[in-house]
Each structure stands twice: as structure tokens, then as C-alpha cells.
Predict the structure of Membrane protein YkvI.
Amino acid sequence: MRTGSQIIRVAFTYIGTIVGAGFASGQEILQFFTRYGWMATLTIALSSLMFVWIGIKLMMMAHDLKAESYEDLNAVLFGAKIGRWISLFTMIVLFGITTVMLAGGGTVFEEQLHLSYQTGLLVTLVLSYLVLSRGIGAIMTVNSIVVPIMLLFSLVIVIYTWNSPASGNWLRITSDYPLSKIWFAPFLYTAFNLAMAQAVLVPMGAAIQNRSVLYWGGLIGGIGIGLLLLSAHFALSAQMPGIAQFEIPMGNIINRLGSAPQIAYLLVIYGEIFTTFIADAYGLSLQLQQRVKLHPKLILISILTLSYVVSQIGFKALLSALYPLFGAISMVWLVLMIWRNRSRTL
């Protein structure tokens, strides 16, 4: 029973780390998958396989190395010199994502709860400190609460869409995009998310003593991510092409279901922002602990404070400025990860 519980906690933490605000809004799925028509079903399957394969590999390698942070893993993967540069890039990216997620939390409070942007930032920072000061176990517990709500919400969306006249669009809608762009999208999407997920997958892999827990947790987590992608694609496809005009496409679907689903959706969006925020802030703090000789709580407070300062720029501005750069760096990471380990077996 204890082993089964650990597997579920690992799987839920993996899912919660990958799934962020862009996923919950539907915009991520629309941009990387749904707009490419029925072939998105195939590219989602490809992306899911990579989430299973690379996710398990990351955790297993971290377990074997007893890595303190992803910097230790990158040093082994790519050599000390290149690995240090990759870790430095990752640290910059993690901080960027942290500020974007914090800004997203403030935006939820401002636009959905009609409270001030600053209130959203401060509430998120306080909750994050309470979780992060307790370590990886607390992060896993938070994900064990948020992810089941997320999965239930996705099931409701699928049931709602099932009887729609256009429910079969996910298997028949066509696209004018070139094949090269369609098949590049899942690699870019997976690379970006896995490069960021190593911030939690590496310390979690090192902390879990049982290798089978990591294997099954990674397998279930990767499959879970794939099912969430597929359910969102299924719902969005049924509303194509009109749904593409909305900034929060999933929100447009939810608004038709009544007040209770709208409240649940709000919780899901904020929960996904929060889990991504604490995951990236935790990974960033671990790496900084290896670079500077300061008390861990002081490092954590410094990260949260600096994130608050940078988040004043705003959610949209940060998103549009930083994500293209992050995507390019992540593709390099994925290519090197696969190339350096093409002969490794689990």
C-alpha cells in the first residue's frame, strides 16, 4: 500500500509540474496541437511517449547519481563545462518561468476574483513559502491535491463534449499547415516542459529510494499528461475553428456550463499556476544552494522577493518576451539529452 501511494504521489507530482496555466487555459494545446487538425491526435501520442521515456530516464539517472539538483545531472550528461552552461541557462529559464507563473497568479485574482493584482501576488508568495520551506514532500502533497481536481475537471469537459454534433472533429478536421511544422510542434512542446520539469524530477528521483516507484510513477504520470492533452484537444476540436479567436479558449467552453464549473475551472487554473510556480522556485533554490553559501531559507526568500519585483512587468508581457527564447534553449537540451544517452538503457 505504501509503495502504491508513493507511485501515485510521484505520478501526480510529475503531472502537476508539467501542466501549467497555458495548459489550463487551452491556449497551449491549441497552439501546439489542435490547430493542426486530426494529425494532432498522432502528435499528442508522440509527445506522450516522450514524456514517459524521458521522464522515467531523468528520475532514474537522478536516483543513481543521488543528484542534489539538475546541475549534477547535466554535468554527467554533457560534461562539466557544457553541463555548467546548460544549468546556468536552465536557471535563468526557471527564474523567468517563476516570474511568469507568479504574474499569472496575480492576473487570476485581478480578472476572475476582481481583487487587486498585488493581492494575488502576495497570497501566492505566502502560500509558496509555506510549502517550499517544507521541501519536496510538501510539493508532492500539494500536487496530490491539485492533480485529482484537474483530472476530474478534464473528465467533465470530455462528457460535456461527447454529445456535441462536432465531437468527431478530433479525428477528421483538416489543416493547411505544412507537415514539418505539425511534427516539429510535439518535440518543441515536450522539450520545453521536460527541461523545466527536471527542476523537480531530479530531486524527487534522488529522494525516492525505490527505483520501481520512479518507473511506475513516471509511466503513470506520462500517460496521465497524454490523456489530459487528448481530452483538451478533443474538447477544443469540437469548437474549431471559432474557438481559436479566444485568448482563453477553454474558458469559453466552461462559461456554457454554469457557475459551479466556472468556479472549479478557476481553482484548476490557479492550482496549475501554483504547482508550476513552486516546482520551478524549488529547483532554482536547490541549484543556488550549490553555488552560494547562504542559508536555504534566505535563498528561498530572495527568489520569491525578486520574482515579486520582476512580476510587476505583467503576465502577458513576460509571456510574449520570454517563451520563444525558452523554447529554443529547451530544444537544444532535448537533442543533447537524447544524443548523449542514445545507448543508455534503464
